[in-house]
Amino acid sequence: MTDSASTFTDQTSSDDGTVDMMVNMGPQHPATHGVFRMQLRVDGEMVKDLIPHIGYLHRGSEKLCEYELYSQIITLFDRLDYISNFNNELVIVSAVEKLMDVEAPPRAELIRMILCELNRIASHMLFYGTFAIDMGAITPVLYNFRDREKIQSLFESVSGARMMHNYFRVGGLKQDVNDDFSSRVLTLCDELEKGIDETDRLLTSNEIFVERTSGIGVISGEDALDWGLSGPVLRASGVPYDVRVDEPYSRYDEMDFGVPVGSAGDSWNRFYLRILEARESISIIRQSIALLEPGDTMAQIRRIARPPAGEAYAHCENPRGDLGVYIVSDGGERPYRLKVRPPSFCNLQALKDLTVGHYIADAVVILGTLDIVLGEVDR
Amino acid sequence: MTTEGSSSGATESDGKAKKPAPQKRREPEVARAAVALPPEGVALAERLPGAFGSHGIEVDAAIDEVVCIVPADRLIDLCRQLKDDPSFGFTYLRLLTVVDYVEQDGEFELVYHLFSLANHHKMMVKTRIPERRASVPSVTGVWRGANWYEREMHDLFGVDFEGHPDLSPLMLPDDFEGFPGRKSYPLNDYEEW
Question: In this structure, how many other beta carbons lie within 10 angstroms of the beta carbon of residue B109?
Fold first, then answer.
């Protein structure tokens, strides 16, 4: 959090005799998307240095996991990246399944995939809206929230909760979906497609929007890899790394979908990539619904998971990037050690490199394109 | 049913020179997760001893990942070669973490998860350091992304990363005392109900 060692010590003055100013942003600032604080050293409007401060939401999730049964850990994972709960649940259940060498039934895998892709769209919807607000456009978020709410109410019909679902289980799902699930999802897909097109028309080629985002916060593919970035932020820099393709999990290997890759690595690329990605998600959902057949949704395993001793690393492509979990098991009912690889945490590291040399208003835009969730950054 | 993995792997391809895993030493009767390396993992495991034998490495495997155990003083050399040699090409550091084995051996284990996008293989590098001198060279010079991971591990486990540019507290308040990640740090205010 606040660190004496890394506060600005040098009060450098510019050539014209002015002195740099320290501006504090957050942790209670709407544009930081949560309890994130950054200190900016500015020369006029120009950012010359930046120190990010995190840890305001540190709950010790990883330590808590060591004291919980594997089935209880799922609830803790819901609360990491609280915008994309299903994707988080998938990571922890697949890690335990890998350790135990069990597989969920095919129907359960398909339902998981559908829900995860819907969750990806919901997360990206929130991104379009809040990102537009960061630049002073109030309208798009209203449409995006309208569409996101439809996804949430579908989730409610499936799991009983709009968020924090606790629906995935080691070896399957808590319960089967309703009979009208397929038809509801297909109707929803059509509506979402319209919603995404609407956002696309509103923002993507809007002159002011393009002016504010193109060429802002550029990072090369090589640097992005070195920083350990992942997800849309990495792909916008031209690196085609997507866990769904590179190490297929669930039933993604049966799906036919493209991985959009940007070129310039600037804020506009990072935004537009998420529009394209949401369209691919809709295509995945439609393909999955076509494959959905009746069957079991839970494998026959012990009620209380007791994996053998060993260690497993499982990861999935989250809306924010490559979310991984490393479990060390000593053969007990609780993990010996559990460590999360949080994509937002890694993406946020590059913030200083991206921001220095831009204006204060651009710092807000750049932070917006990283699309961080502090629940995951701080854990 | 299929819950218990068969003890010691089905496809043990790499050499027999294996260090007994820490869990085995504690509870010998516990079943181990089965090892099943993918083809690229097998190839990688076979190449490692020849390429880095001089570093005193040991090669092991965990489910589908190759594990390379290296002494702490050779860690940086190994990491740099793994990154710079294009036939390994580990340009991506996925995760860096500490596992606390102080109760068992008085040691911390550092685990580095690496991935190569070009060659499409993955690996864990492990090194062990004693709790009394919990210090290891920083890999921030190899992968910049290690920066915050190391700061976090310094906060939570008190591991010192030599050569790290700034080890000031990241997750915890400035005046926080103790290392809450360690097993010896109690989890207060928690009772089973």
Answer: 18
Q: What CATH number labels A71-378?
A: 1.10.645.10
- List the Cα angle A315/A316/A322 in 5-degree steps: 80
Q: What pTM was estimated for this model as a whole?
A: 0.84
Per-residue burial over B135-168, b = 16 or more CB atoms within 10 Å of its CB, e = otherwise: ebbbbbebbbbbbbbbbbbbbbbbbbbeebeebb
User: Contact A308/B5, CB-based, under 8 Å?
Assistant: yes
- How many other CB atoms sit within 10 Å of the CB of residue B106? 10
Angstrom distance (rounded) from CA A336 to CA A309: 9
Q: How far does the CA of residue A215 sit from the closest CA of chain B (Å)? A: 23
Are the beta carbons of A91 and A325 closer than 8 angstroms?
yes
The listed CATH number (3.30.1330.60, 3.30.460.80, 3.40.50.720, 3.30.499.10) that belongs to domain B32-136:
3.30.460.80
Closest CA to B161 of B78, B100, B72, B93: B72
Query: What is the CA B90 to chain-centroid distance, rounded?
Result: 15
Q: Which residues of A touch B9 (CB under 8 A)?
A: none
Average pLDDT, chain A: 88
A68-113 confidence digits (pLDDT tens)? 889 889 999 998 888 899 999 999 999 999 988 898 999 999 999 9
* Cβ contacts of A227 on chain B, cutoff 8 Å: 144-145
ipTM for the complex? 0.84
